[in-house]
Amino acid sequence: MIVVDTAGGATPLLGRADDARWRGTELLHWSNVVPGPVDVFDAATATPSGAAYPSPAGVVVDRVEVKPRSMDLAVREHTATTLPRIVLYDAVTGTSTVKFPDAQLVLGFWWSSDATRLYAWTIDNGTTTVRDVLSNETAVTFCFRVKIDPPCP
Amino acid sequence: MQRSINIVLVVLVAVAAVFAFFVSRESLALPGETPAPTFTFQARPSPTFVPVSTLAPDALRVFSVGPLPADFRFVTIGDAGDERLLLIDLSGKKVALVAHFEGNGSFTEARVVETTSVASGETVVIHIRSDRPTARLYVIHPVTGEVRSLTIPRSEQPRLSPDGATLAVTRNSQDPDVNGLWLLTRVTGSVAGWSLTPVDARRECCSGRRMGSGSPRSSTLEDRLS
Question: Which chain A residues contact residue B166 at CB under 8 A?
Fold first, then answer.
């Protein structure tokens, strides 16, 4: 990965990355193909600045969503022998809590703007559901095809 | 004689007035009841949201959704040629249709639809590409259902800037002059239109090179909507 600014400047090669998210001036980036951490590039100083999530050995980070106004992260990850899952990483304690043990059918996930809810969007047999994985409350259910309202298949 | 006639007329008028007074009392009010004043409140109709739809090129129908909810998300779902852009109202627990491809149009083989939006949700861009040399952008304002369609060179991974004024796309090509990151910006002033410019550290910054024949106007084509 290199970081390019709109004026045409660019950094040296920073390493392998397949996806990234901004957190202020920090750019969090990771590979969703090979195991490794979520690294940080600080655009303000134009230097790499450590890891935002030092993932355990053998863990591939699929996707990261930055919790608003926080250093915590929601991370979808898997290993060669385990199913994808969504964990909540507490940056202060350096610990992770599993919030969605089987995230195979998760199409996407995101934080509410007030950071009180973490929504996961799943699909199952033509019916999709968005629910808050922190409270386990279903927000809305709708169809993948043709119609909006269930029943779908 | 004339005086007698006048007297008779005055008497007749007086009798008619007294008669009318008693008749009106009998017909307008019940005995012992004082008519109460009445008021009629006519509620002013509140502004009603009337959805509209527009058919854009390549069979994309765009709908107005009205004011955006407090907590929402745009998602794109559906099979090729039947993709739908939905607005999920997370607080209201409902879903609204923003745009729907009612067919493949001219994008059939290797068709890919991507979307990007500003945080406020007031502008959403749908980017569609296939194996054709050109791609298409739809700049949509979901509140009103307004849509603009632009034909641009084949590209992918659209990202709107936070202010919605610039769209970044990548171009994956064997040609090093084409490959890389490009910015689509709205040109205002005397030469209005759209400009697609490369961002590439290997070249001197923004040397005036444009896509197409050189004029900012010719870099992209804004399609007429039917």
Answer: 6
B36: Cβ contacts below 8 Å, ≥ 6 apart: none
Domain, as residue range, for B119: 53-223
Report the SS3 class of residue B187: strand
Beta partners for residue A70, in sequence order: none
The answer to whether the Cβ–Cβ distance between B201 and A4 falls below 8 Å is yes
Residue B14 in any domain: the answer is no
> How many distinct structural domains can be found in chain B?
1
Of the pLDDT bands very low, low, confident and very high (cuts 50, 70, 90), residue A15 is confident
Complex ipTM: 0.86
The domain ranges of chain A are 105-153
Our CA-based measurement puts residue B146 at a distance from the nearest CA of chain A, in whole angstroms, of 22
> What is the mean pLDDT for each group of 10 consecutive residues in chain B (226 residues)?
59 53 44 50 57 90 95 93 94 93 95 95 96 94 94 91 88 82 74 68 36 35 53
Q: How many CB atoms lie within 10 A of CB B1?
A: 5
Cα separation, B68 vs B98, whole angstroms: 11
pTM score of the predicted model: 0.76
**Helix, strand, or coil (residue B203):** coil
Q: Which residues of A touch B71 (CB under 8 A)?
A: 112-113
Residue of B nearest to A11 (CA): B201
- Out of A4, A8, A140, name the one closest to residue B88 (CB): A140
Rounded Cα gap, residues B62 and B99, in angstroms? 4
- Identify the weakest region by mean pLDDT among A73-87, A101-115, B54-68, B158-172: B158-172
